[in-house]
Amino acid sequence: MIIKPRIKGFLCTTAHPAGCELDVQQQIAHVESQDPLTNGPKKVLVIGASGGYGLATRISAAFGSGAATIGVFFERPAVKKRTASAGWYKSAAFTRLAQAAGLYATNINGDAFSAELKQATIDLIKKDLGKVDMVVYSLAAPARQLADGSVVKNTLKPIGEPFEGATVDFNTATLRPISLMPASEEEIAETVQVMGGDDWEQWIKELLAADVLADGCITTNYTYLGGEATWPIYYHGTIGRAKEDLDRAAKALAEPMAGINGNAYVAVMKGLLTQASSAIPGMAIYLSLLFKIMKEKGTHEGSIEQTTRLFTTRLFSGSALGDKAGDLDEQGRIRLDDWELRDEIQDFVKQRWSSVSDENLTEISDFEGYRAAFLQMHGFDFDGVDYELEVEQVVPMDVVEF
Ligand code: NAD
């Protein structure tokens, strides 16, 4: 079929398999343009492996360090005339390209919060890899089903005070005001249950109990602090509360991980456009301003540039791990948001933040770049893909369905 983007609000309900494959190829090419890692991970489990930071980490591990990878995600295959999700196409492309390069790559598609999926992952590690030396937790989920069957939701709201902001309508490139009432205590608690550290802890404890973590294994989880402009909705909001809980979880995991000479790290990453961040109120304007100034300064990064820097200059740079005096902040976190938080970048954003309007949006910010990144996230808007051609929307993948 011929596939075009179909955009509703901040969602694109279609994805293009050829564009998604090109996206993965470009990420692989970026990793391969760097020196290979000599002391990187060799067997890696990535939970939340099909988009944004998780996929980029998987590519960095596989193509930068020759790692065997198991990817866990929740994606939709194509059904009749409905395309698969972008994460499905990208994972299928990654798996095919990794296997063609002689690397082990397999996938589990289902709910990572469930006990059954965790057990299936343990069984797969035991059968195929024995143990893993890195576990990346990069889940961003709208909701979580708890063990008793009840469902808790991830709500993006401010805490204490209402939030007045704006988002951008993709179809018209105009601003739409948003106002959000403060979250209730219940909404805060539920968001922490979905996006906090509890499930990461459960995963690591179960992997440890099953003896599938190798000596010296490290586990990482990603967080965001962001610039002041985003604090009312992010850092001081429900999601920020969940992210604080990651710091708690990393500390709680320190002792059990020390038992295998391992470590648990929270890494603070930069803001960029992913499925998850596109849902955050106000983020479209912040990121459009950020893209503008970071591109001008030559410091713009996407997820693959971030995970490359995480691997080559932090986690596997030879001295950083275990040498805590190295690059960790006072909370023990790895910082990759250093370029985003530079004064010259944040001053630019702050000065323009409240004066963005329909008239000046494309002039003072890089909304065009944001829009292109949004389309490319779904496999559209790539030079080198003919979007008028018929493509097969059903793309098979080596995956355990759950
Ligand atoms: P994303 O939306 O691109 O990816 C989320 C992943 O989680 C996908 O692989 C998806 O399939 C998977 N997933 C969702 N629900 C699942 C479930 N129930 N079971 C199994 N898999 C499930 O998100 P992202 O932006 O890359 O976020 C990953 C992490 O990085 C999050 O913790 C996020 O807060 C953090 N982070 C993001 C940014 C940013 O700007 N995007 C910045 C800093 C940190």
Task: Describe what you observe in this structure.
The two termini are 28 Å apart. By secondary structure, the chain is of the alpha/beta class. Strand 1 and strand 2 (11-12) form a beta hairpin. It has helices at 17-32, 52-65, 86-100, 115-129, 185-195, 198-209, 238-258, 283-296, 303-315, 343-353, 361-364, 367-377; strands at residues 7-8, 11-12, 43-47, 68-73, 105-109, 132-137, 143-145, 151-153, 163-169, 174-180, 213-223, 263-268, 334-335, 399-401. The mean pLDDT is 94. The strands form four sheets. An eight-stranded parallel β-sheet has the order 13-12-11-6-3-4-5-14, sandwiched between helices. It has a two-stranded antiparallel ribbon with strand order 1-2. A two-stranded antiparallel sheet has the order 7-8. The protein is built from twelve helices and 14 strands. Residues 48-54, 72-75, 87, 111-113, 138-141, 222-224, 269, 271-272, 274-277 line the site of nicotinamide-adenine-dinucleotide. Nicotinamide-adenine-dinucleotide is lined by residues 48-54, 72-75, 87, 111-113, 138-141, 222-224, 269, 271-272, 274-277.
